[in-house]
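Typical record is below.
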Amino acid sequence: MQSGLMFMLPTLMTAGAAASTGINGTTPNDYLKVFVALCFIVGLIFACAWIIRRMSGGVGLNQKHIQILSVMPLGTREKLMIIRAADEYLLIGVTAQGIQTLHRYDGPVDLANPTQSSPFADRLKGLLKGLDSDPLAKHKHTSNGEDKP
């Protein structure tokens, strides 16, 4: 008699599980598992952010003493930077191998005056504004607005 019950035990267990499942075959425990996993992942994201902030020394939080004023890329990994560190203004070169101070300024750097723009930049700005900056454009049109052949 006991051997017959042993053969029926798996059948009884699956019948009991089928009675407690929902429409799509999910149980309330499945929802709980998904919720716990979601909370774990969100907690892991916050823990990683906290660890990164601690390892970097809070770089993003305190930018009062060191500021990047201007950056000029020279290549894929090389650039010139004007920075203000405390009350000093520095021109530094940044490469993949390291950082080197190129010049120390005596006083504050005036970045309000833009540098001279190139003729190409002027022409491109004119084209973008809808102005015809082509010097030959006046020769291409007739007085009645039609193009010359």
Remarks:
- Residues 23 and 149 are 76 Å apart (CA to CA).
- DSSP finds four helices and four strands in the chain.
- The mean pLDDT is 75.
- The radius of gyration is 35 Å.
